[in-house]
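Appendix B, Record 12. Input sequence as logged:
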Amino acid sequence: MGALERYTVLRGSDVDEFRASVSRFLTPHLLTPVGRCHSSVTADLAQVSLGPVSLVYGRNAGAELGVRLLEQVSYYDVNLALAGRNLLSCAGDEVLLDGATAGIISPKMVAEMRLSDGYSQLHVRIERHALERHLEGLLGHLVPGPIRFRPRMDLHTPAAASWSQGVRLLVQDLDQPAGLASTVRGASSWASFLMNGLLLAQPHDYSEQLEQRRVAAHRPAPVRKALDLIDDQPDADLSVDRLARAAGVTPRSLQRHFRTHVGVPPHEYVQRVRLARVHDDLRSAQRGSGVTVADVALRWGFTHVSRFAALYQRHYGVAPSVTLREPPESGHDGMP
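Logged structural output:
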């Protein structure tokens, strides 16, 4: 065995036994040897659970194997190649897994794989509800989910490299009877570390929000106060003078803080927030409701409708009237 020796489930089994056992721990699938009969193929399997995170190790020898999932994946599955190669196809992407590249299958995806002879792989299975609740804790709001990760994970990037090294360290720890993961608290800590690290290391459709939260946490108090007021009351009087009074600094100081920590002056940030609110209202307006572009623009503080329309067109690439005529938006769009 190459990993998780203490948690061996099968050793030297045939293809049918291997497929049935893997299906219990992951997703039902078809497993087909390429170019040889079943009797020439052997496989090893190990599995261990740490609460919402499971590790599944598999190795095949004797022939290439074709794998086709029969159901959509219901969890997050990070595939790490330990030896050999695996051509993973999912969500319209092909990812060649080797020592430098991992692959991620997100919930509601189906996948196919081509495993080289002598291939060994570690699956890091993370239950959907656990990872999405973990992300909600980081963001401070509900996540409609599922999170859609970029399928290709470049293990040369510093964050992904650190995460994969952490997985390997966990495997070593599990093979020690008195390792940290042998205790309930230790297992919980490892699971939290892996979920947190994956969300930070691998791009997904909430990465931008996580980065915004990280940057916001390091902004000076006056900037945070002004931003909170803008986000809470975008339709109010938000002149620089009022924002500066709320932040407890001079207008000049607030302007300087915004240039340094937000990247745009206060009035431009206000404008962007208002445009976003208008956009949301126009997209959610029901046909026949009588809502007009002018009504929505005035509601969010745009007193010059023609000037607003030009700003909107510049920002979203279409006139606000076009957005209003589109079918109402519903649900989560996935990765941009």
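Residues 329-336 have pLDDT under 50 and may be disordered.
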